[in-house]
Amino acid sequence: MTTETTPAAITRWDGWGDPTLARDLPLAVRALLRTVIGRVRRPKPAAALSDVVLDPSVLSVEDHTSLAAIVGEDAIHTDAESRIRHSGGRSTPDLLRLRETRQDAPDAVVAPSGHDEVLAVLGYASAHDIAIVPFGGGTSVVGALSPERADHRAVIALDLRRLSGLLHFDEVSAEARFLAGTTGPEAERLLSAHGFELGHYPQSFLYATLGGFASARSAGQNSAGNGRFDTMVTALRIATPTGEVVLGGAPGSAAGPDLMRLFLGAEGILGVITELSVRVHRLPETHRYEAWTFPDFATGTAALRRVAQLGTGPTVIRLSDEAETGIGLAQHGRVGKALAKGCSAVTVFEGDAALTAERQATTARVLTDVGGRSTGPVPAEEWADGRFGAPYLRDALLDYGAFCETLETATVWAKIEPLKAAVTDAIRSGFTAQDSKSLVLCHISHVYPTGAALYFTIIGNLRADAVEEWNLIKTRVNDAILAHGGTISHHHGVGRDHAPWLAREIGEGGIRLLRAVKAELDPSGIMNPGAVLPVTAARQKS
Amino acid sequence: MTTETTPAAITRWDGWGDPTLARDLPLAVRALLRTVIGRVRRPKPAAALSDVVLDPSVLSVEDHTSLAAIVGEDAIHTDAESRIRHSGGRSTPDLLRLRETRQDAPDAVVAPSGHDEVLAVLGYASAHDIAIVPFGGGTSVVGALSPERADHRAVIALDLRRLSGLLHFDEVSAEARFLAGTTGPEAERLLSAHGFELGHYPQSFLYATLGGFASARSAGQNSAGNGRFDTMVTALRIATPTGEVVLGGAPGSAAGPDLMRLFLGAEGILGVITELSVRVHRLPETHRYEAWTFPDFATGTAALRRVAQLGTGPTVIRLSDEAETGIGLAQHGRVGKALAKGCSAVTVFEGDAALTAERQATTARVLTDVGGRSTGPVPAEEWADGRFGAPYLRDALLDYGAFCETLETATVWAKIEPLKAAVTDAIRSGFTAQDSKSLVLCHISHVYPTGAALYFTIIGNLRADAVEEWNLIKTRVNDAILAHGGTISHHHGVGRDHAPWLAREIGEGGIRLLRAVKAELDPSGIMNPGAVLPVTAARQKS
Question: Which residues neighbour B297 within 8 Å (Cβ) at sequence distance 6 or greater?
Answer without folding.
Answer: B319, B321, B322, B343, B417, B420
